[in-house]
Write a structure and sequence with these properties.
The complex is a heterotrimer of chains A (150), B (558) and C (44).
Chain A (H helix, E strand, L loop, with lengths): L3 H26 L7 E3 L9 E6 L2 E9 L2 E3 L2 E4 L3 E9 L4 E5 L4 E5 L4 E8 L3 E6 L12 E6 L5
Chain B lengths: L4 H32 L7 E2 L2 E2 H33 L5 H23 L17 H31 L7 H32 L8 H29 L1 H5 L6 H14 L16 H35 L20 H23 L5 H4 L4 H6 L3 H21 L6 H27 L24 H30 L30 H24 L20
Antiparallel strand pairs in B: 1-2
Helix pairs in contact in B: 1-2, 1-3, 1-13, 1-15, 2-3, 2-4, 2-13, 3-4, 4-5, 5-6, 5-8, 6-13, 6-16, 8-9, 8-16, 9-10, 10-13, 10-14, 13-14, 13-15, 14-15
Chain C lengths: L15 H27 L2
Classes of the chains: A alpha+beta (150), B mainly alpha (558), C mainly alpha (44).
């Protein structure tokens, strides 16, 4: 029914796909490269805040609105593991942290969560990357990693 | 073959209207790279706002042009291969629905009342005319599907022992995908968005709307792509002077598209809340499955072209490529199709990156994404549409193509432009440049506090490539509209090049029957989308009122 | 189209060039995909 070269093409493509899928699982397991987690929504996510859990563990609850993020600036010590929670109080916004694998959508009525570790000091810019109205291109926030060693 | 006059005129309208609108779509394509690179630092130029123009660019280029063309080309293949004509009334009704719907949506956008981009994510609200117009366009494109099923069944009764032509399988597969996936977006638009935008309902579930949109949104890209694939399998080998290496490979490719085009839409929502990670991972893995037919196609078409080149006396492992009929006016369509394939090498491979679960975090919603999809929808899809539109225009009017040299170089120039443009956007995306953003106002405005010098090079590459693309578009318009004004020099007809298969192929019943594939399609869609939709409903606890893009305060019903 | 050149019979035609092309395509796919993959790991 099928030419032998065609068959080999299908086998090769399946093998390469398997290699990619294996690599994704390796990154998921050994390197904790995950995507947004699924959490049931409740009202507490509508309050923007930074919470310190212990010396190296923080939680930042972001609230996106047309056209700013709160907290606009947060300070985190070097080496902290940070849980980020993002929601929106109006339209859909995007949430992308530079140089980090944090890429979330802020959707009203839902909360996106991911965990990130900041090993290097610096100013990490966050931009909104989903069109959210006429002020979209102004919408930014920052995570400043060096605090409290100023 | 001859086509009756009413059908011919309807087909010509379906080819002409979107190309006419495309002038506007391409104009704002150029404007966007100018805004984004910071050359102009304004919210609007000549009365057209950046985001309003971006909505036009997306709706015209990606929805109107592609849908009209798929219908017109579908008619042409079905008429040509089954030797039957579609029902005149149904064809007319379909065309009118599509034209009026497009007019409504375009009017809403041009009036500035629907600057919500082509994904129209709520709770941004557009004028109801935008939603109703889009729905009419889609419903209009459903009508011929049922007519073609009738033509196919009638053909089959007359030819029970013959394999259905690959082009007919491709067209029916494509419109089956289209019909099923648009059911979800029709629900989103007609049940959720229209009453909400009219103020009849207060609030809607945004995650549900997004999930329904992407049920449609990724299958949509295969709806764009499959007409090109039909041309690659049935037309390109003939144009190159050869034969199709394997017809069964084409049938397998189309049926894999049928079962896997829809249940992968969640790979656009990896960053979304509310949807579980298991659903996301499953749909990510299924996306690798839908890449298989493209790998099959890459090899089959390469082998078909190699055969054509060898017939012309080519030798060598690589040098046969230069024996293909590049830059030849008489087979200009070859140039459109081969350039599309070259772009799709990069478009397809970067698409695998986007769909790969956690890798998507590196690129999601950055300019990497438009970089990628201008290599797909702006590559094989767009070039096949342009090439086949002017080919059919010339045949159906009996007029010779105006400025054939321009028409021949258009795809090459376009390809150079897209490669530069997409390289710039993808590089920018990897260093965080956002898509869909008027960066000239802030990130690329040196006098703004938010100026980001890292994105200067990437957005300048986008500008350079975009300029070349725009030039190619202009040359095409000269050729296309010039052809309309020539004198008739031949009898109007439809005559598609037909590639024979290299080997004699016996009819394989499994590859000539829709029923088993439709059953698998339904089952996979149910298994993947039932949990996705249930997650979206159950994990979203607050519904949203409508917002205008200009106002942070929700629209309140008076 | 020119039919004058000596033609290979379909039975004998082995798509060597297409196999080479396909190998290159797979190689390119691996380079692009793992390129982004290592960008991801470097950013974790």
């Amino acid at each position: 029914m099928l030419d032998k070269f065609e068959r080999n093409v299908i086998i090769t493509a399946l093998t390469v796909s398997a290699l990619f899928i294996f690599s994704i699982f390796y990154a998921l397991g050994a390197r904790r490269q995950d995507v947004s987690e699924c959490l049931p929504y409740n009202k507490t996510y509508e309050t923007a805040r930074v919470e310190q859990i212990d010396a190296k563990t923080y939680q930042i609850y972001y609230v996106a609105r047309m056209w700013n993020f709160e907290p606009a600036i947060s300070y985190i010590p070097v080496g902290s593991e940070v849980d980020l929670f993002v929601t929106s109080l109006d339209v859909v916004h995007g949430f992308n942290v530079f140089d980090k694998n944090v890429n979330l959508m802020a959707v009203p009525g839902g909360v996106a969560k991911t965990t990130v570790t900041f090993t290097e000091p610096g100013v990490y810019k966050i931009v909104c990357h989903e069109f959210c109205g006429t002020g979209h291109q102004n919408m930014e926030a920052e995570i400043i990693v060096n605090y409290p060693r100023k | 073959m001859q086509v009756s006059r009413p059908i011919r005129n309807i087909l010509l309208i379906e080819l002409f209207v979107p190309i006419l609108l495309l002038t506007l779509g391409i104009y704002h394509g150029l404007m966007q790279v100018i805004y984004r690179s910071g050359v102009i630092q304004r919210t609007s130029v000549a009365g057209l706002d950046y985001y309003q123009g971006l909505t036009l660019h997306g709706v015209i280029n990606a929805i109107v042009l592609t849908t009209f063309f798929a219908v017109a080309f579908g008619h042409a293949t079905m008429i040509f291969y089954t030797k039957r004509e579609p029902n005149k009334t149904a064809t007319l009704v379909s065309m009118l629905l599509m034209v009026i719907g497009t007019g409504l949506a375009a009017a809403a956008i041009l009036a500035g009342k629907a600057s919500v981009l082509y994904t129209f994510y709520p709770p941004l609200k557009a004028h109801p005319a935008f939603y109703i117009g889009t729905a009419m366009l889609i419903v209009g494109s459903w009508v011929p599907y049922f007519d073609w099923i009738r033509m196919y069944l009638s053909w089959k009764r007359e030819h029970p022992q013959e394999s259905t032509p690959v082009a007919v399988i491709g067209t029916l597969v494509n419109f089956t995908i289209w019909f099923v996936c648009t059911l979800a977006v029709a629900y989103e638009v007609l049940v959720m968005l229209v009453p909400w935008s009219l103020g009849w309902t207060q609030e809607i579930n945004i995650m549900l709307a997004r999930t329904l949109f992407w049920f449609f949104g990724h299958a949509l890209v295969y709806f764009w792509l499959l007409p090109s694939y039909i041309m690659f399998y049935t037309i390109l080998p003939k144009l190159a002077g050869g034969k199709l290496y394997s017809g069964n490979a084409g049938r397998i490719a189309f049926f894999i598209f049928l079962i896997l085009s829809i249940p992968i839409g969640v790979h656009h929502q990896f960053g979304d809340p509310s949807i579980g990670r298991g659903v996301k991972l499953t749909q990510s893995i299924l996306t690798f499955g839908v890449a298989i037919p493209s790998f099959i196609t890459a090899f089959t078409i390469a082998a078909s072209l190699e055969y054509a080149a060898r017939k012309r006396g080519a030798t060598g492992l690589w040098s046969w490529i230069w024996k293909l009929p590049f830059f030849r006016k008489d087979v200009f369509l070859f140039g459109y199709l081969i350039n599309g394939l070259i772009l799709f090498i990069f478009g397809g491979l970067t698409g695998l990156v986007n769909a790969s679960y956690s890798l998507n975090n590196v690129v999601h919603n950055t300019s990497f994404i438009p970089g990628h999809f201008h290599l797909t929808v702006g590559g094989p899809v767009f070039l096949a549409i342009l090439g086949m539109s002017i080919y059919m225009l010339s045949q159906l009017t009996g007029r010779r193509i105006y400025a054939p040299v321009l028409n021949t170089i258009v795809p090459y120039l376009w390809t150079v432009g897209v490669l530069i443009f997409s390289a710039g956007l993808m590089y920018g995306g990897l260093i965080g440049e956002p898509r869909r953003t008027n960066m000239g106002l802030t990130y690329l405005n040196p006098s703004s506090e938010q100026f980001n010098p890292y994105w200067v090079v990437s957005s300048m590459l986008g500008l350079a490539g975009g300029g070349i693309m725009f030039t190619a578009g202009l040359l095409y318009f000269i050729s296309f509209f010039g052809t309309c004004f020539r004198k008739r020099s031949a009898a109007p007809e439809i005559d598609l090049p037909v590639s024979e298969t290299l080997h004699e192929e016996r009819r394989v019943p499994l590859l000539d029957s829709f029923k088993p594939w439709l059953a698998i399609m339904g089952l996979i869609i149910f298994l993947t989308y039932a949990p996705a939709i249930s997650d979206a409903i159950n994990n979203t606890n607050r519904k949203a009122p409508p917002y205008k893009p200009t106002d942070p305060v929700p629209v309140v019903r008076k | 189209m020119s039919e004058s050149t000596p033609r290979e019979t379909p039975e004998k035609f082995v798509p060597r060039g297409a196999i080479a092309f396909f190998a290159l395509l797979i190689f390119l796919g691996l380079v692009i995909w793992f390129g982004i993959y290592f960008v991801m790991l470097a950013r974790s």
